[in-house]
Amino acid sequence: MMSPELVDILACPACKGPVEQDKQARALLCRSCQLAFPVRNHGGKMLPVMLVEEASPIADATDAADAADAGNQASNEG
């Protein structure tokens, strides 16, 4: 997904705290703010969208990833 070196130098735009990568949710998470910043494919490279306006609550991002995984498993079984 993204290099660990890039994640290490990024900071939450809201609180300036550290972020961590959640590969399943395809997001960078700020545990202090409880925000998930999406990571999107831009020309073949995965880049984070570090805008507060684009962020969602962590629970929403992880729930969406869980739903996508469930859908993928169901299609693989059928």
Summarize the structure.
The chain is an alpha+beta fold. The chain has helices spanning 4-9, 58-77, and strands at 20-22, 27-30, 35-42, 45-48, 56-57.
Structure write-up:
A hairpin with a 2-residue loop joins strand 3 and strand 4. The mean pLDDT is 86. 33% of the residues lie in helices and 27% in strands. It has helices at 4-9, 58-77, and strands spanning 20-22, 27-30, 35-42, 45-48, 56-57. Strands 1, 2, 3, 4 and 5 form a five-stranded antiparallel β-sheet that branches. By secondary structure, the protein is α+β, with helices and mostly antiparallel strands. The protein is built from two helices and five strands, in the order αβββββα.
Task: Give the SSE layout.
Elements: H1 4-9, E1 20-22, E2 27-30, E3 35-42, E4 45-48, E5 56-57, H2 58-77
Antiparallel strand pairs: 1-2, 2-3, 3-4, 3-5
Helix content: 25-40%
Radius of gyration: 13 Å
Which residues sit in consecutive blocks of at least 5 with pLDDT less than 50?
none
- Class from secondary-structure proportions: alpha+beta
What is the tally of helical segments? Answer: 2
Order of helices and strands: HEEEEEH
Percentage of β-strand residues: 25-35%
Question: End-to-end distance, in Å?
Answer: 28 Å
| Major sheet attributes | 5 strands, antiparallel
Number of strands: 5
Round the mean pLDDT to the nearest integer and report it: 86
Shape: globular
